[in-house]
Design goal:
Blueprint (H helix, E strand, L loop, with lengths): L4 H20 L17 H12 L4 H8 L6 E2 L6 H11 L5 H21 L8 E3 L5 E3 H21 L2
Parallel strand pairs: 1-2
Antiparallel strand pairs: 2-3
Helix pairs in contact: 1-5, 1-6, 2-4, 2-5, 2-6
């Protein structure tokens, strides 16, 4: 069942707080250890989650633009892997603290956007740039909550 607006907002707030708390509690060497994704280390995975967070409010626009029974989509230029690599490289000079701060700011923007969104959009079928399809609320739950939480566990090595 698709989450209500209040439930989605609660999940976004709670998961964001948990991710930040987990990341701030890690020793600095955790961010320099190699991890599974594309050979990235923990800091690069953090750069990834900080960079993708700004895209989630744009999914509201995708839902608004959906006019047909087929899910609406905005594919990433050059493919999702190229997009992720560009965003991680762009953040290479940033410190762990700066990346956590960027994630926090972007999560606050995501929450504010969903606070303003019409609740009826949460049931609108969409397709994310990464190819996740379903009602807007479900897609956001999968990528902004479950996906980000998995990356935080990856960084922590758990």
């Amino acid at each position: 069942m698709t989450a209500s607006k209040a439930e989605l907002l609660d999940k976004l707030r709670t998961s964001g707080d948990q991710v930040v708390s987990k990341l701030r509690g890690l020793p600095p060497e955790s961010f320099e250890q190699g991890r599974y994704e594309s050979g990235w280390n923990g800091r690069q995975i953090l750069a990834h989650i900080a960079s993708i967070e700004w895209t989630y409010p744009r999914l509201i626009d995708v839902a608004r633009e959906a006019q047909s029974p087929a899910p609406a989509s905005r594919p990433a230029r050059g493919g999702i892997d190229d997009y992720n690599a560009r965003q991680v490289e762009k953040r290479a000079p940033m410190s762990v603290a700066e990346l956590i701060h960027e994630f926090e700011q972007n999560r606050a923007t995501t929450i504010a956007a969903f606070e303003q969104a019409d609740e009826s959009l949460l049931n609108q079928p969409i397709r994310s740039a990464g190819g996740i399809t379903g009602p807007l609320a479900d897609v956001v739950s999968m990528i902004a909550i479950a996906h980000v939480d998995q990356h935080a566990r990856d960084i922590a090595g758990s």
